[in-house]
Amino acid sequence: MELSMSANEDLAKERARCDFNVSEITNILDGGIERTKQRKKIESIALSNGKCRDVTPEETLGPKERYENAIRKSCLYTKIVKDQVLTLTGLEVLGSNSSVLRRTADAFFKDISPFLLHLGMFVPTIMGQGTPEQQSYWLPRALDFQIIGTYAQTELGHGTFIRGLETTATYDPDTEEFVIHNPRLTSYKWWAGGLGKTSNYCIVVAQLYTQGKCYGIHPFIVQIRDEDTHVPLPGVRVGEIGPRMGFNTADNGFLGFDHYRIPRNHMLMKNSQVLKDGTYVKVASHSKLTYGTMVFVRVMLVNEVAFNLAKAATIAVRYSAVRRQSEKISGEPEPQILDYVTQQHKLFVCIATAHALQLSSNWLWKTFSAVLADMRGGNTENLPELHALSSCLKALSTSDSAALIEQCRLACGGHGYMLSSNLPLLYSFVTATRTYEGDYTVLLLQTARFLIKAWEQAESGKPVTPTVSYMEEAVVGNKYKWNGSAEGIIKAAYYVAAGKISSSVASIRKRMKNGKAFEDAWELTGVQLVAAAETHCRAVICDVYRKETVRLTANSSPNVKTVMDQLNMLYLSHWALERTGDLLRYTSTTEDDIISCQQRYEELLAAIRPNAVGLVDAFDFPDEILQSTLGAYDGRVYERLMEEALKSPLNAEPVNRSFHQYLKPLMQGKL
Amino acid sequence: MNVNKDLQNERNKCSFNVRELTEFIDGGKNRTLERKHIEKLILAQKDELFGGTPEDYLSHKEKYERAIQTNVIILKIVQDFMRDANGGDLTNYRDVLTTLLNFVVSREGTPFALHFMMFLPVFLSQADEEQQMEWLPRAWNCNIIGSYAQTELGHGTFIRGLETTATYDAATKEFVLHSPTVTSYKWWPGALGHTANYCVVVAQLHTKGQCHGIHSFIVQVRDEETHMPLAGIRVGEIGAKMGLNMINNGFIGFNHVRIPRRHLLMKHAQVLEDGTYVKSRNSKLNYGAMVFVRVVIVFDSVNYLSKAVTIATRFAAVRRQSQLKANEPECQIIDFLTQQHKLFIGIATCHALKMTATKLWDTFNEVQQQLRGGNLERLPELHALACCLKAVSTADTAALAEGGRRACGGHGYMRSSGLPQTCAVLDAACTFEGDNTVLLLQTARFLVKVWRGLDTLKLTPTVAYLRTTLTEGFNDKWDNTVEGIIKGFQTVSMRKISECVSCMAKRMMSGMSQEEAWNMTSVQLVAAAESHCRVIIISYFHEEFVKVSSSFSPALRRVMKLLVELYTLYWALDKLQDLLKYTSISKTDTEQLQERYEDTLNALRPDAVGLVDAFDIMDEILQSTLGAYDGRVYERLMEEALKSPLNAEPVNRSFHQYLKPLMQGKL
């Protein structure tokens, strides 16, 4: 069997017929040409030495060997970052720019690095919740990787409802120490990435007790392993939690304390303090300020899922250009599957969504930065709105991305089921983000709470904040008349959101009128409330995506403008068609409007078709980051599948020993 | 047994007799007894089957070895049992198969599945009598282990495009099998990697210089004694997958491999000694095996979904989180309506799909009689039905199991929950044995044909509604009952098919070729086929319930009726946009539907645990830390974690090799 080394011809043809300048869109997505240049420089430093490659496919190893391999590569990558990348960019790359480092890290880990939470949660929490003295003590050591930390909040028995956490930190003024304790099994910390075997420090969230009173949950920095021997310290029980659907190299861990003592100043004291004598002092309006870190983490998450969705779209679109199947017209050669409208329907919305989420995440970050500046001036008024927005945006983007990545996987047929395609791992990674950092349903219910409040304000004629200003118009009760323009679709989406919120309010009121308590009425209306919050968020994404597209392509070449506009329209019509029931119910859209929208949608698919490969090329993933037999730039799909298969340890010998032990006795009736 | 208190409370308040429902699900009291007997035999070998390091901690290669070890034991138990029970009679093949599938103890599948699911059935349907006599006894006794190789690296659903060739050489009376390109390598067949020594290979038959399309050949792959691959054959496994890592999927390529003439399966077509090709009587007869396999897939999907909902429902009864009211203790998450919304539809779906598939199966058996008599009238209909039923059931079960997994929050992400593996099996079913989109388009092709011939054709039962919905006044007045909703769905389906047909006509009028118009309309065609399938599932579920419920006790009848209601309401609300677009449903009607749906969830709430208990999946088969009967969720999670080889030592060696040098700046 000779495996050809030459690039796939169909893919080359696709690239030849692409009618826009690919790098222009790359620059838009990166946030400017300078950003693109820097990203490429970082990628070339990290990838050129070949240290990211594996000889044996990681997925054929046992979990222990996979972990060991991940540690090896984490250390190599960290060293490259420390020695070469930071000198280029300065420490700034670790902050809001860290997505470039995250992106590049994917060349080293098919799954995930055990160091993820060190920069992802440990360092940001110290920055966000430590006093200046605490920051100057801990941050240099952490940023230099002299210590490796993680963040432990979730417990075996308690997740999203953080008030229910059971771990306690009780202040002892005699020794000026906190005593950390886990009273029972359900209080064990569970899930923290890098906790099992890797980290020697950990931020632990616990119920603070002092002077006989509980003050709710607070973060503490806790040393869990000896810096020299790495052995867990006495009173600490730590280990890894076992295999998961994904994240299998992140050594997610459990952690329990048996009356374990830490110094008083290991409590992170920016927002509240415990004085030497045990007096509790609240420094800032605590509940609102912790929103800050949460919003930051969620913006990062949206960015990350957009990036992973872009990978899946790249893989599936390139594969669809290479794969040929069936006959569209009898007697003709098998067509590229990308020519099927059903396939375009599955894939192009993925490209559009990757753009929509990337741009929304950038926009949210900008808005958030502005609010942060306000907050320094003491103005926290916009925080609840931003928090509600980040909640639903996180929920929707993780859920959409997971569903669409799965759609990409299914669109690749059986080959998408191969781990070497990388689609299953992308899915298992992204589907986890749907649950962690706030579960989908819970977050949408939080947003719903904000929306209901806003609706009541609008009803009573009080002013509402910008993202819900549409309510002021909708509360009047007029039905919006459909027009097929982008602005029309967005407006209709807002009207649908308003309609659903209003129905939920009516439902709650009806139930209360029938004698139910508010909480019960709220609970019974839960399904509708989730749907209302989803619709609200969808309208905001449509709106932001539209405005940002127009803004960012203002100076683009005509063809880039056209294709970006087509993608945006595709996204808008896609969601209009997904929600025709809502449109029929809450606006005065007619059946004919829907038919013409459907037709427009199908035309957009056809218009985007010739540029599809160009559009995914514009995401500009090096093969090392994409890690996919189906999605590599050269399109050597079948050759790569076979090359990877031949690396399986099972294929190293023609007959496995189990034949002699079991199979042969079975077949010969001698078992 | 020390059972979690919350779970015990749930069981105490269950309103119906769980055993009664179990027996109904099993298909009768005797069946339940039979199953329990096999379970006892399996438990007698508990240590060999379930001892040692949990499979999730093994490497890819070790997983394969474990799969062979455990599944050989299971196979032997079931084989012995069946031999004792019915003397090795093949008449009840479906029972043998479902029994085997029910007792897969490795969570990532078994390398023997294909032997029973494809290798044997293909022989039954495509080999002539003499060939059956020669091969079947050996295959049935597992003296040989087979696989079925159709899909190629470059070719899947479109089987006419397969590249493997079988060229007849009249001089030696042999076929020469050959794989001309890398894309022609067979890729995917289960057990083919290192397990099977025989394989049915589908190849393009060439004789006397002419190609006669694809045919099936029986090919020996490995030496029966040494298991070494035979000369000219390149065989191996295809590497790690998202799930099903224990079924040993393989690739195979042939370099001018010669096999005897009689290794062509000759029931439907023959090549005579001189190379003359004799055509089959009816090519449609091949549909038979496909319908069979697709029905089996539906049963198997239901099997896995019932595991997933059992796990998720029990966990939801044990898990407590958040407060419904301030100052009350945290409540069981199963009390949240949003949680009930995610889980109860899964329970109802198990019953709906199982009853539908059973009915399709029975109809198919009846039709087989007609087929032997030469009457092929209903074959296209049943084939179209099997296509969309396979597509819709695998898509629904995969989505609902995944929903169940997510409903368990982070813990559902643990492999020790069993949910990720269960979802991965169901996911695979969406693309294998005919990709779901392609299957729905096949059904659509049938529907379009029926629609176009509506005035002249004699309508077969499953599409008869297309004409009745057209009668005047059929759907003038919306009616919120189950029957009314079914009528609504019939109207939706009819309208969608009709719209597709006129849309294609319009496109062809404006100059598109028929093929192009079909492709441009295919998104709508897929949706139309799905609607048709929903009509069938909901109405079968309803009709079958009415038929069997007279034998139920009143308590069981009540709860099953609620499930039928729930299922119907769920889909009505899910497809509300279709109903709004195509029927006379009003806004008030939809609000009532929503309210009734919410009330039904509430009514089912106290029986939820009883309903999943009735699936009666023993802990050893369920293999879940979250779903075990006793509800010791947190204890089991920790127990499983402690079995991790990484936890066997406090410090992993990578610390000394890499971490410490890094932290001390000495790397």
UniProtKB/TrEMBL annotation, chain A:
The active site is at E437 (proton acceptor). Its main location: other. FAD binds at T154, G193. Its cofactor is FAD. Signal peptide: none annotated. It comes from the Eukaryota. One of its GO terms (molecular function) is FAD binding. Keywords: FAD, Fatty acid metabolism, Flavoprotein, Lipid metabolism, Oxidoreductase, Peroxisome. The keyword Electron transport does not apply. Residues 487-668 form the Acyl-CoA oxidase C-terminal domain. GO terms for cellular component: peroxisome. Residues 291-452 form the Acyl-CoA oxidase C-alpha1 domain. Pathway: Lipid metabolism; peroxisomal fatty acid beta-oxidation. Belongs to the acyl-CoA oxidase family. This is Acyl-coenzyme A oxidase.
TrEMBL record, chain B:
It comes from the Eukaryota. Residues 482-664 form the Acyl-CoA oxidase C-terminal domain. Pathway: Lipid metabolism; peroxisomal fatty acid beta-oxidation. The active site is at E433. The keyword Glycosyltransferase does not apply. It is found in: Peroxisome. FAD binds at T151, G190. One of its GO terms (cellular component) is peroxisome. Residues 17-145 form the Acyl-coenzyme A oxidase N-terminal domain. This is Acyl-coenzyme A oxidase. It comes from Bombyx mori (Silk moth).
